[in-house]
Sequence to fold (343 residues):
Amino acid sequence: MAAIGLKKLGGMCRQIGVALRAGLDIRKVWEHESQRGSQGHQHRAQQVLDQINGGDTLADAMRSVSPYFPALTCDLVEVGETAGRLEEVFQKLADHYDHMFKLRRQFFGDIAWPMIQLGLSLLVIGGMICLLSVLVPNQGYKVLIFSCDAKGLLLYIATVGTAVGCLVALILSVMRGWLGALPMAFLSRLPIVGGCIKTMALSRFSWSLSMALNAGVDARKSMKLALRSTRNRHFLSQGKLIDRTIMEGQSFHEALQITGIFPRDFLDAFETAEISGTQSESLDQLAVYYQEKAETAAKMLTRVASVLIWIMTAGIIIMLIFQLFNDFILKTYNEAFDFLENG
Fold:
């Protein structure tokens, strides 16, 4: 079952939040939701409505169609139901997913043209292998390291396909935590990339912890929810240590400090908030601050990705130009010079 898209999820949360604020019953809200959007969305919304009518809570009803709705959405809906602030939760979720969609669209939009150029350069190489295999068969020509024949063309296609597949699999494995916390911990230490990853995680952490504390959720559950919302295996791997520290009676900032992964300015702001008793307000401000930093970091990450793709494309083109120059100009010149010299 495919998950709901970020744009659709943000719009749905905003519509539900507005409807609840207007005083509509939750059953009526989901009845309306089951009549809009795609057929698949209507079907899942109807399933949620059926579960609610059967006596389930909204959070449990949304979990019943997992993974269509993200775990973070279901967890925070449960918080909202418990605290009686469901409409506020949906409005906050709408802002959160709209922001995530904006960052994702910005990233893919900015790297689209470099990716197109890289794809075109790879197609040109494949086209040259194919063309030379027809024009000069059995001449032993090579494009880069691939022979200009059917076998070379198949090898080239297999090499490019394998490289792309491995890259996509590696990115998905790291982002979804299939390889554990180590890859994300390594990436978090890299210049630019690490700052972007940490900033986005801190923004989600601050926002979720503020939401949970505002709703009156206990300290341990609030912290677990906030760590889970980061969607970062490096942060999640510290969950047991943080929970144990809180159980021992330590403050939030002490529990976070012991992990060694939270920045000093974040911990200082958190400590001041705990002393002054303004945790929720301070966390809201931290969430906004890190959200703005995340936007800046995402732009920088996009530039880095674009530059790397440009370098790959330029490298392929330069190698191709040098090889063509060597095979069709320099080699011909040398052969002609040898012929004239040796008579």
